[in-house]
Specification:
Largest sheet: 7 strands, mixed
Number of strands: 7
Radius of gyration: 15 Å
Number of helices: 5
Oligomer: single chain
Shape: globular
């Protein structure tokens, strides 16, 4: 696993040992950021369920102004700190050592332009977390939410929140769902 592009290009990253986290593979990460490239520069990016921090680090490397890393696992937080140090991207990084619900309700000091959500697939947390993002007014007016999920994830609840899917990218083991306001 490495940073694909930007100021930290090619720097290898570490991930927590074991199966608690599921790092996004480089090919999927590249496709994800190609889809976000027009909105990334000078953006506020939020990486929920950060794991190794690879997605948020990629955002900072490609020009995001700030990235909030939300993670509550001790080993994962250690990896994020190490990876930020290796990439020299600590200036734009804010670590929030909390669970996602707490962070959304009390810890984020500003609205996000892009929120990336990659919960453990079995939780199907998107149906709880996306409504919370909207309730707590965490998404900027032209902002985007991107969810990495398995193929069984259900997004029928989006319409009731004034949101819609505008793009999906499917891979062999998962998909990225791109969401915006209607």
């Amino acid at each position: 696993m490495r940073v694909i592009a930007g100021t930290a290009r090619s720097i290898p990253l570490i991930a927590p040992k074991g199966e608690k986290t599921r790092p996004t593979i480089d090919k999927h990460k590249e496709t994800l950021f190609n889809c976000l490239s027009d909105r990334l520069y000078d953006s506020v990016f939020v990486d929920l369920y950060s794991g190794s921090g690879a997605i948020g680090i990629e955002a900072l490397s490609r020009g995001a102004r700030r990235c909030y890393f939300v993670e509550n696992d001790k080993d994962a937080l250690h990896c994020i700190r190490e990876n930020l140090s290796k990439t020299k991207l600590t200036d734009g990084a804010v670590l929030i050592p909390a669970d996602v619900r707490t962070a959304l309700c009390t810890k984020l000091p500003e609205q996000a332009d892009i929120i990336f959500l990659d919960p453990p697939f079995a939780l199907h947390a998107e149906s709880e977390i996306i409504p919370l993002i909207m309730k707590e007014n965490r998404l900027s007016e032209g902002g985007r939410i991107v969810v990495e999920c398995d193929f069984s994830a259900d997004f029928t609840f989006l319409g009731g929140l004034g949101l819609e899917i505008f793009k999906e990218k499917s891979y062999s083991s998962c998909k990225h769902v791109f969401i915006k306001r209607k």
